[in-house]
Amino acid sequence: MSQILNLIESADSQPSARQNTAPVHESFVDLVRRAAEMPASDLFFHSGEDDVTVSVRHLGTVKRLSVISTGQGSRLVNHVKTSADMDLVSKHHPQDGRCVCEIDPGRKIDLRISTIPTLHGEDMSIRLLQRDTELLDLDRLGFDQKSLHELTGLLNKPGGLLLVTGPAGAGKTTTLYACLKYLHDGTRKINTIEDPVEYSLEGIHQSQVNPRIGLDFPELMRSLLRHTPDVIMVGEIRDPVTAETAVRAANSGRLVLATLHAPIAAGAIDSMLALGVAPHFLGTALLGILSQRLVRQLCPHCRIPLDIRRAPHVFDRVRTWLADEPVETIHAAGGCPECRHDGYTRCTGVVEVLRATPEIRQMIFQNRPTSEIQQLAVRQGMLDLRRAALLKVAQGLAGTEELVGVGSYLA
């Protein structure tokens, strides 16, 4: 039996771990291993007045897993900072770092670490990037067939700007990598600029920013254009220089893929204009905007059927995209050993794809409000995020509670 005290306790037990005599390194590796097996996307240490809470983000939801003593939490945080070559002395300023954790022989997890000072101490957030994660094909992202067809149509264009938007943790990077996998057929020169490079892609030329030596997105972007790529992927547009350079590259005939933070597809236009891009240049370069969210997919082994025959009009808004037979049942979360009694097995994507039609471009030239552009896109046939989520409910893949999660971004 392992002598390492598990820092993660089962969800149905009281978190009360207060002591740990095992080496800190072994305890941390055990903690990362257990989080990776869930699998969790993030691991958190939250400092309280009397203890430290350990939690993870699993299927988009933060779950408290354990409570440890302040001393043990401090030792773990210091161990991670040392491994990531971060300043141990500085506890009153945010820091970022990265390191690799080998959880089993031959199995390594890349860790992206961030600390921030709080009222009761130093909080730490750790993003888990599993090297053995298989890159998904576009048709495995969970997008509805209409949106998937529109996305592939945009990717087949020889040049232009395609933006992917959504909140943090919405799967934007996963979608970009799936797009690169679709485009990588040996006929195009593909370059990326990332922070960080999350997955190594054979045959694709990947560059990583390095703020410590002043190598940032704008400098890499300017230099990259001299290498005449056919496709450029920019991890995130976050400053005016990168925004302008991306638009210029798209207008010069290159296909540019980039992420951007915006609540809805049309909101990305406002974000680009706020970064100083001229409406005429943006409208000319833009191919389309994909906005996405992740919703939890119900466990097929224990989902609970609910009869809705007394409410036949529930799915009228998505009737066009449903089969001819009426929807008589929706499903709710249950719980079984297959899903760790969670009711959900994975996350799946819901998406809206705004195509830059001539009418949309004209509205961009005129700097029209986001709401007007969004409404025009819907009138032209765009399946928006609310209806995309409703379609998942009708198909029995998601519960109605996911509609609330998607709608909260759109209020």
- Give the CA-CA distance, first to last residue: 52 Å
Helix content class = 25-40%
Count of DSSP E strands? 15
Q: How many domains, in number, for the residues? A: 2
> Globular, elongated, flat, extended or rod-shaped: what is the shape?
globular
Describe the protein.
This protein has 411 residues and is an alpha/beta fold. The chain has two domains: 24-130, Beta-Lactamase (2-Layer Sandwich), CATH 3.30.450.90; 138-407, P-loop containing nucleotide triphosphate hydrolases (Rossmann fold). It is built from twelve helices and 15 strands. It has helices at 24-37, 70-83, 145-155, 172-183, 217-224, 240-251, 267-274, 279-285, 358-365, 370-379, 385-394, 401-407; strands at residues 42-47, 51-58, 61-69, 95-104, 107-118, 121-130, 160-165, 190-194, 205-208, 231-234, 255-260, 286-298, 304-307, 329-332, 344-355. A seven-stranded mixed sheet has the order 9-8-10-11-7-12-15, sandwiched between helices. A six-stranded antiparallel sheet has the order 3-2-1-6-5-4. A two-stranded antiparallel ribbon has the order 13-14. The longest helix is centred in the N-terminal third of the chain and has 14 residues, at 24-37. The protein is globular, with a radius of gyration of 23 Å. The termini are far apart. The model is unreliable at 1-21 (pLDDT under 50).
